[in-house]
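Dear Dr. H.,

I hope your travels went smoothly. While you were away I took the liberty of generating a structure for the chain from your last submission, since the lab meeting agenda had it listed for discussion. I wanted you to have the full record in hand beforehand rather than looking at slides cold. The sequence, exactly as received, is reproduced here:
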Amino acid sequence: MTLLNLRSANLKIQITLFVLIVFVILGLFGAWLAPYDPTQQDLSQALAPPFWHAGGTTAHLLGTAPLGQDILSGIMVGAQVSLLVSLCAVALSGLFGVFIGLVAGYRGGWVDTVCMRVADIQLSIPFILLAIVMIGAMGPKLSNVIFVIAVTNWVTYAKVVRTETMRLRERDFVKSARVSATPTGLILLRHILPNVINSIVVIATLDIGKVIIFESGLSFLGLSVQPPTPSWGAMLADGRKYISIAYWPSMFPGIAIFVVVLCFNFLGNFLRTIWDPQSKH
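The corresponding predicted structure, in token form, is as follows:
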């Protein structure tokens, strides 16, 4: 890698980390940092433009929504929903998928066959169709959204961990542990899991961006958190009706989704490049 490319990569990762830190801070403290209550309606300020447009003011830097809510406040508080859903869903799907991958890869045989066939069936069902059916049956609550995303998102972890576990179980240190009558659970936790943790972290980092898109899509369809709780997907859906006369209610939440997802994807690719020398070529 040339010096110029190295400096460019360092700048990109610094910007990426800065954006993600801001996202986490907003997710944790957005309700206190927001200049307005994002659910507060003021019809006299409905669809007020951003401050750089004629008629815009610094009181509402990014303008207002169709019912007069401050868009900047909505984006800041809406980050909380995206952060909560993405972290919880990724944690649940990761734990389940890693467990299935370790057991299937180490045991092999019929256990591996059953687990992988279930995974293949899961992959054959479109996410959005399964989400609509499940949330329609359970109700559009945040806990249900997290559960649905976790249930539909474990397969990648399982397949990657299974492949690496099958490779590692033939290594001498695993065979030695097996010969010494070490319990299977300890072999998986002490000898195999530490050697696949890098792949799990990379998948989880990339997965967070994907989950944010999933949650935003469900919010756009009205299947995630319900009003008046602000979420980026719901803000985008509310603003699309007025796109011909006011672009800002839908554009700025869309930009927030795009930037955060892009940064998580870049961070995941960066980690993969560091931990997997073959990906550099």
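Two observations you may find useful: The domain at 86-281 is CATH 1.10.3720.10 (MetI-like fold). The two ends are 11 Å apart (CA to CA).

With kind regards,
E. W.
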